[in-house]
């Protein structure tokens, strides 16, 4: 079972390969399917929106693109294998598939298969060959090579020659695998019988159907010329640097002829050369010097082949092969293309998160084409090679938007040539805010002082908190979090405005009921989830003089109605033998206020005998100021004023009745009688009020009679 599970598990749940390989024929119409990319990467349709599949290609042309369904890889532009790769086989285009959540890169290679879309062609449609009639049978004459840009079986495979008894065809294969044709003389020529011979050379490829190209060959039979030209080399092998300037001498071919006169004069020419090479090289017909006439570019073509013909004045020819290798120089600057993956970057992104892909291309080869990338500056990012030409820009350490909100990253690509070439590009990465900072109050603890009897809605204090985050994450609102500001079941004493942080009194404060209270304020941001912090607020209520002194002794109720309840009148008995300073009584009063508002002082406001008694200013003690005499009335009435020190001062009065008697029995008869003298001021006040009321009534009656009289006359 374990063995079977190990076998079936990869089949049921295949892991996406590190590199996907597709193969398509060239010249497919736009929109043609290359392969089910998403399926081959193991992506299900449900997870496609979140994975954000994209493709990245380093080529200037985007040969491939994702279809409308974003799952299949399709052809985006015309693909000509010969134009992209030339004779290189296999022809492979490389691209990267990028997915996110989690991030991953897959390397995709697309092999372009050749189709037989090119027919063989000759550089010259008409070829003229001069042969002396004494040329021995078996002599060979190069006919040149046909050109077919296709590869494999679709390339040029064979040559055919129209039938002629005097000539045959020899097909030879070059070291690079290409084939060229040589004309072989089978029999002696006879100029007197036939001066010209016409042949047709056909080049055939191996495609299906077969394509072909032809060249017409004209052979002129000339009189005898003893010695044909002879080149110093059968094959000239030349190596040229690609940066040689135009007009430079590339190489020289040389041929000699043992004849004399015009038969020894040799003229040089290209007998078989591709059009591309003919535009780059010129051959001096007299000296054999080959000069550069166009720009050589190793990246465009690395190898050229030509056949040089040397012809003497008598028409005899010789041929030599020229193989030209172009050597690479470091003349191409590396190119950089950047694909941002995350921009802006959330500041809570973990290290090793990929934020961008950098694709590097250098058209040079060897060390000249080997490129290293590096990043300038000490930044929290690093470059990591993903493939030969691709780098990943990765977060190296934690980001903090509150410290750095954007990074200007300069990436430099430098090759290993001598001298090295380099290029650089800049990438601006912004850091997006994450709610990672709680609001901070300007003070951890606030204190406020408010006078009592304040108006409801009065401003108590304004608090403020600052949040380093941005946007909604940094928008602070304020709330009451708790405290002694409101007891259970009672309305709170203060409220806080959510936006401004202003704390207002909900009602009037009373110092005598609540001298101070504490509460907790919470500052909360608008992030999700929200972050908050708290601060304490202590409100101190300041006292105002809003309470008058209250007399505890003598009781105020006892002095309210002495006639109605004489037994309730408080009195003090002072013996007539009392000496000066005798303590009669003590006025006791309290004030609910505090501080100076509660400091009390006492004054004797009214007394039957003002000189007989004195009242202590701060103690409230009533003492005799002199000795009691027999002339003093037995009943004495004292009115004391109790006053605080507030601004303005508040006061209260206390009435004290004193009986001068040696004993309580002597004082009782005095207490049973109504104190007429004490009531006289009250009766006087009554009569005055009554008289004023009668006068007012008479005045109003007179006015009314006057008005009625005038109305009657009218």
Automatic annotation (TrEMBL):
InterPro entries assigned: Cadherin-like_dom, Cadherin-like_sf, Cadherin_CS, Cadherin_N, Protocadherin/Cadherin-CA
Pfam families, A to Z: Cadherin (PF00028), Cadherin_2 (PF08266)
One GO term of the biological process aspect: homophilic cell adhesion via plasma membrane adhesion molecules
Gene Ontology, cellular component aspect: plasma membrane
Chain segments annotated as transmembrane: 684-709
Keyword terms of this UniProt record: Calcium, Cell adhesion, Cell membrane, Glycoprotein, Membrane, Repeat, Signal, Transmembrane, Transmembrane helix
Subcellular location: Cell membrane
Gene3D superfamilies cross-referenced by the UniProt entry: Cadherins (2.60.40.60)
Residue span(s) of domain Cadherin: 16-122, 123-231, 232-336, 345-441, 442-551, 574-671
The protein, known as: PCDGH protein
Source organism of the structure: Campylorhamphus procurvoides
